[in-house]
Task: structure prediction
Amino acid sequence: DSGVTQTPKHLITATGQRVTLRCSPRSGDLSVYWYQQSLDQGLQFLIQYYNGEERAKGNILERFSAQQFPDLHSELNLSSLELGDSALYFCASSPSRADYTFGSGTRLTVV
Amino acid sequence: AQTVTQSQPEMSVQEAETVTLSCTYDTSESDYYLFWYKQPPSRQMILVIRQEAYKQQNATENRFSVNFQKAAKSFSLKISDSQLGDAAMYFCAYNRYRDDKIIFGKGTRLHILP
Result:
């Protein structure tokens, strides 16, 4: 157990639907990052939150949004889902630069 | 923009042998971190080794060591005495000091032959 908890582990949904992925960071970590790993691709940075505030944004689609709550857990919302959104979505947390811990990911399948 | 390139999509090595995975990166920064992450079939991202760019000494963690060539922007991973449990996807990654996000290469799938 890395200390970063992601739920659910697997998610199957239909095109056009909306889903929410949840991440609980390691205790005390203020930063949360979301990454997308598509088939045969490396991890693509989506967005970062630090203590409730958005800090950095990567190639995140407008259909995707995220937030970090006062208890520091984060949610990634994916809407109007398309087949191409099928991927492994990782959350990572960090107390400081270069000290990242990844969750085990959520496997999203859009059918 | 910073990029990380892993030119070997797949590699195989005999158990107990040594294998080297290649990684090059492009950056104009002088201060940054480099990482190797392992992703086994369980899909968990596991940190193998980390190198700070200002440190000339190559990082080592047990059977894992790196060859960091800053001028050449090269960061290869050497695995000695390969074990079956080393079979995984290996990602090279970069993080500049001014950012928190990590930039990953596309990975090298390593097979260990018994």
